[in-house]
Write a structure and sequence with these properties.
It contains 7 helices and 7 strands, in the order βαααββααβαβαββ. It has a single domain, classed as Aminopeptidase, CATH 3.40.630. By secondary structure, the chain is of the alpha+beta class. The longest helix has 17 residues. The chain has a 7-stranded mixed sheet, with helices on both faces. The chain is globular. The structure holds coenzyme A (COA).
Length: about 200
């Protein structure tokens, strides 16, 4: 069953994020902290825009989510002003140069302006979606994207985008199947995909 995110789902969505963060596979123990991925890629979303966060729940509990923001530029500004001091700066070190994958994720967490892609006016919303293995391949991902797209359409948002890890070939096949197309500022290391709403 798909339902709107509730604050009690915070730990569940955080755990799902870590368990799917390595090109779709489990990233537990791979980074400086298992909290890093959720702090960068799911927690700010459910805090900032919980009305655009949806979860999938089965008899064992919450096992998947989609999170999104309708206005990436406003979210970037909030991330810099509120989230970075609250959840990133005191908790992680921002090391440069970027050598390891761990450095890279911290670098991204300390640099929200990376989200200001050239196509942000045409595709102002963006998303993250993750399902635990037990829910994958059964149509939940498609339903979650449709749920978020419907909510964005109802708000008059013209387009939705995402940035992904090029190594995640399964996710890329999924987005292609759902009609996402590669945007002009996409790069081979960080494919950028968009969907007109
Ligand atoms: C990627 C993910 C969100 C897809 O959700 P899903 O529920 O597994 O996908 P669905 O069952 O809804 O599939 C929808 C369509 O995409 C296709 N598809 C999904 N995964 C695919 C894959 N690995 N290879 C080829 N096609 C795929 C399906 O065949 C289906 O096509 P159809 O509806 O025409 O029959 C999910 O597998 C997942 O969370 N994976 C781990 C985390 C992750 O990679 N997140 C994305 C980070 S960018």
């Amino acid at each position: 069953m798909i339902r709107l995110y509730e604050p009690a789902d915070y730990d569940a969505v955080s755990a799902i994020c870590t368990q799917t963060a390595e090109a779709g596979g489990d990233a537990t123990g791979l980074y400086v902290s298992d909290e890093l991925m959720p702090d960068a890629f799911v927690r700010p979303y459910v805090v900032y825009q919980p009305d655009l966060a949806f979860v999938v729940e089965d008899s064992e509990g919450v096992a998947g989510y989609i999170v999104g923001v309708e206005d990436t530029a406003a979210f970037t500004e909030w991330f810099r002003r509120e989230w970075l001091p609250r959840a990133i700066a005191g908790r992680y070190e921002h090391t440069e140069p970027v050598v390891s994958k761990d450095d890279l994720i911290r670098h991204l967490a300390f640099w929200p302006e990376r989200m200001l892609i050239a196509e942000v006016d045409e595709y102002p919303a963006h998303l993250h979606i993750d399902l635990l293995p037990r829910l994958q391949g059964a149509g939940w991902g498609r339903q979650l994207i449709e749920t978020l797209a419907d909510a964005l359409r109802a708000r008059g948002v013209p387009g939705l985008h995402l940035s992904m890890d090029a190594a995640n070939t399964g996710a890329r096949a999924f987005y292609d199947r759902l009609g996402f197309t590669e945007l002009p500022s996409s790069t081979s290391e960080a494919p950028l995909l968009g969907l007109r709403l």
